[in-house]
Design a protein that fits this description.
Blueprint: E1 2-5, H1 9-22, E2 26-29, E3 45-48, E4 55-59, E5 64-68, H2 73-82, E6 85-86, H3 107-112, H4 120-123, E7 130-136, E8 142-146, H5 158-162, E9 172-178, E10 180-181, E11 185-191, H6 196-207, E12 215-220, E13 236-244, H7 246-259, E14 266-268, H8 272-277, E15 289-293, H9 299-306, E16 310-314, E17 319-323, H10 329-334, E18 338-343, H11 346-351, H12 360-373
Parallel strand pairs: 1-3, 2-3
Antiparallel strand pairs: 4-5, 5-9, 6-10, 7-8, 7-9, 11-13, 11-14, 12-13, 15-17, 15-18, 16-17
């Protein structure tokens, strides 16, 4: 496999035109932190777009930032932090889950995988923050879609289509994102020694309240050792993050105490939600890792069926991280959920559908979209579904 490094959109265009002429397939990579996500890809060449790096325009007053797709997320977050702003979807750092170093992910890779962290429960996922982009299609043409403002969309909302597409529609070269103000203060609060079902009920109560929590997770006792530095978990802990001014936080914590029915509420220091969103608890295990989205009221029911050896819950129970050798597809369907096999050996990722299988109608639509963007099937062939 030849590695082709591109440092500009023009070089990406040239690389794609060359590949098209020679009919050579291309694996698209940035920092390579998520190469283990998806079906194994066997390509002729690797297109490295990590050289497309740099922040092109930042307008703090407009809450908009534009960067090249290979820009490290850490660089973007550092610049936003100087103006007390943030990426609302709190990009999840999945690198350590796949054996890569932490804090290396690029913004293009995060968007391609829709890697949304714990704050998505408040601000929405990555797809809700991508306003516009530039990319290169399988004809070797650079094009742009979307814009720099939030507005009603007429026609195809291509930014949402690209998020979570895992690069099968072509490489992003530039992205424009909506950002949000960073609250002056944040507090992470725990209710310890609570069973999963009661903990999920509490998290749902907080979610439906006016507290606007930016993190609602449940950590069971099986993961307690990993989170020991943040405080004792006991038999399980509901973990909540509240943000605001000092006065607003006082009011929110008072309201939280009422919602918790006088349970003891402890406070913890540290970035516990970054660890939860990144699935870091599974990094040093050999377990297959599944990520299941489902109605939060069904979370306890699914866990009772599976009894995983290690698990976490985020988004008030509507996202479950599960370490299990079981095939979660049908079990997730029984709870009105959808399952993604986040990490497993190559043999397992060939045998088990990594992403949710599509019905005949949807599969036909997916193939037509793929053909429109990449008629020769050059980009990441088979990464999401066989033959796509």
């Amino acid at each position: 496999m030849a590695r082709i490094s591109a440092r500009s959109e023009a070089e990406v265009v040239e690389a794609v035109r060359t590949a098209r002429k020679a009919k050579r397939t291309m694996e698209i990579v940035g920092a390579g932190t998520k190469r283990g996500l998806g079906r194994p890809v066997a390509c002729d060449d690797m297109l490295d777009v990590s050289g497309l790096s740099g922040i092109l325009k930042y307008e703090p007053d407009e809450l908009v930032i534009t960067a090249l797709a290979g820009t490290p997320v850490a660089e973007i977050e550092a610049m936003l932090g100087e103006k007390n702003q943030r990426l609302g979807f709190e990009p999840a750092d999945w690198g350590p889950l796949f054996g890569s170093s932490a804090n290396c992910a690029t913004i293009g890779g995060v968007l391609a995988a829709d890697a949304s962290g714990s704050a998505a429960i408040r601000y929405g996922r990555a797809r809700d923050h991508l306003l516009g982009f530039r990319a290169v299609n399988g004809l070797g043409e650079a094009y742009k879609a979307g814009g720099r403002v939030v507005k009603n969309v007429t026609g195809f909302d291509l930014p949402k289509l690209m998020c979570g597409a895992m690069g099968i529609l072509g490489p992003l070269t530039e992205v424009t994102l909506r950002v949000v103000p960073r609250a002056p203060l944040a507090r992470v609060l725990l209710v310890r020694n609570v069973a999963a079902e009661a903990g999920f009920a509490l998290l749902r109560r907080v979610w439906s309240s006016p507290l606007e929590a930016t993190g609602l997770a449940f950590v069971p006792d099986c993961a307690g050792d990993f989170f020991a530095e943040f405080g004792e978990i006991g038999s399980g802990a509901a973990i909540m993050r509240l943000e605001g001014s000092a006065a607003a936080l006082q009011e929110k914590i008072a309201m939280l105490r009422e919602l918790c029915d006088d349970r003891t509420i402890a406070e913890c220091e540290g970035d516990v939600f970054r660890r939860i969103g990144g699935g870091r608890v599974f990094a040093d295990t050999s377990l297959n890792v599944w990520r299941v989205t489902l109605p939060p009221s069904r979370a306890a029911e699914l866990l009772a069926q599976v009894s995983p050896s290690l698990w976490l819950a985020d988004w008030a129970g509507s996202l479950l991280w599960l370490g299990t050798d079981s095939d979660m597809r049908e079990i997730a369907h029984q709870s009105d959920g959808r399952a993604v096999l986040m990490r497993a050996p190559e043999t397992e990722r060939r045998r088990i559908a990594v992403f949710e299988p599509e019905d005949a109608v949807r599969a036909q639509l997916t193939r037509r979209v793929k053909a429109a963007f990449d008629p020769l099937g050059l980009f990441n062939p088979g990464r999401m579904w066989e033959g796509v």
